[in-house]
Structure formats: C-alpha cells, structure tokens
Design goal:
- By secondary structure, the protein is an alpha+beta fold.
- The chain has one domain.
- The protein contains 9 helices and 5 strands.
- The protein has helices at 2-11, 14-21, 26-39, 83-99, 104-121, 136-148, 153-170, 174-180, 191-206; strands spanning 43-50, 76-82, 123-125, 129-131, 184-187.
- Strands 1-2-5 form a 3-stranded mixed β-sheet. Strands 3-4 form a two-stranded antiparallel ribbon.
- The radius of gyration is 17 Å and the shape is globular.
C-alpha cells in the first residue's frame, strides 16, 4: 500500500510539493524518504509484557530475532519502537518544532485532537494488529492545522498527523494488542507504518 501511494505521488510530482512546503531540500527529502522506508523493517525492543487472558495461543510464539535482545517467552509480548514509522517521524517532528514558529500549546492541542480521532476510528484486528481507515488521520490533521494555525499549517499538519497516529492508534491501543496476544507490538510499525507515512505526506499536501 505504501509503495503504491508513494509511486503515485512521485509520478504526479506531489511528493516534491509536500517536502517543499516543509522547507526541505531535494537531498534532505530523499534522505528522509529512504530512511523511513528502510527503517520500517527495523524494530528496537523496549520492554515485554504478559499477553492478556483469552489471547490466541497460536499467535504468541515470539519472533526468533527478538531472543538475544529481550528474553521473550510464549505468552509474552515484546513492545518495540519501529525506526521508520516511530523514531524518524518523532525526530523530524522535533526538527519542525525547532525550525518553525509553532506555539507548543497549539501543537499539543492539534496532536491531541488527531490522537483522539485515531483512537476512536482504529480497531484491533485478530492476527494483524490495529487497523484504521487510512485517510481519516491526514484529513483530520490538515483541517485541524488550517483552523489552528493557517500560516504554519503544513508543518503543524505533519506533526499532529504523525504523532497523533502514533499516540491514538499505537500507544493507546497497546491494551488491545495485549488482549490479541500478538508476539510483537511495534509502535509505528506493521499496519500503522502505512498510516503514519501516508498521513504525514497527505496532511501536508492538504494543508
């Protein structure tokens, strides 16, 4: 899904417009793009937690690559941070906050609104994780950014869109992953990577 949307955006030149609105040079934009895509396959284990009662036991076998990083056992869920969908968007959001006249209070308010919407529309999907309609977050982020800070709507849309998805569809849904019994809860990874990556680009374009 991500590669299909990315290819379409490149073909019509919208990707360049989005990065230009964020004040990135072509080299910086390409570095961010490649880093995000490559980083989507990297998860940094943070901690482990017990699977909830009634979780599917056939889905609880821990991935073998996690063993040397965290002592994961059957019935345990490893919580990790995805580099491409979690670490890089957060780092870039901090960069945007530091290089644009964005009031912290409005950025937090916008992020809270998007996070709330993402939480309400996201749902746990057995054997898959958390899913949500992919264009709800970018449209919400763009509208919130335009209303709250129209003169800086593009960077605000990226920040509240990406961080809002991370909070609303990942962090606040960890309890649902625990109930599903998934062996790995990747913050910013798996299905939500598509949502975070596309949200950041589309939200900027709409703003």
């Amino acid at each position: 899904m991500t590669f299909a949307v990315l290819f379409a955006l490149i073909q019509v030149g919208l990707l360049s417009i989005a990065f230009d609105k964020l004040g990135l040079s072509s080299d910086s934009a390409m570095l961010l793009l490649i880093s995000s895509l490559l980083g989507s396959g990297i998860n940094l284990p943070l901690f482990s937690m017990a699977a909830g009662p009634g979780a599917d036991p056939q889905w609880q076998r821990p991935p073998t690559w996690l063993t040397p990083l965290l002592r994961s056992r059957p019935g345990q869920i490893v919580v990790a941070l995805n580099v491409g969908g979690g670490l890089i968007p957060v780092a870039f959001s901090v960069f945007l906050l530091n290089h644009n006249p964005l009031p912290l209070g409005q950025a937090m308010l916008a992020t809270g609104i998007v996070a709330t919407v993402c939480y309400l529309v996201s749902r746990p999907i057995p054997r898959l994780g958390i899913g949500m309609p992919i264009f709800v977050a970018p449209i919400t982020a763009a509208l919130v950014a335009i209303i709250l800070l129209p003169q800086q709507s593009a960077p605000l849309a990226y920040i509240c869109g990406t961080i809002g998805v991370l909070i609303g569809a990942d962090l606040l849904r960890l309890k649902d992953i625990r109930a599903l019994g998934a062996p790995l809860a990747s913050i910013g990874g798996a299905g939500t990577f598509d949502g975070i990556f596309i949200t950041g680009i589309v939200a900027v374009l709409l703003a």
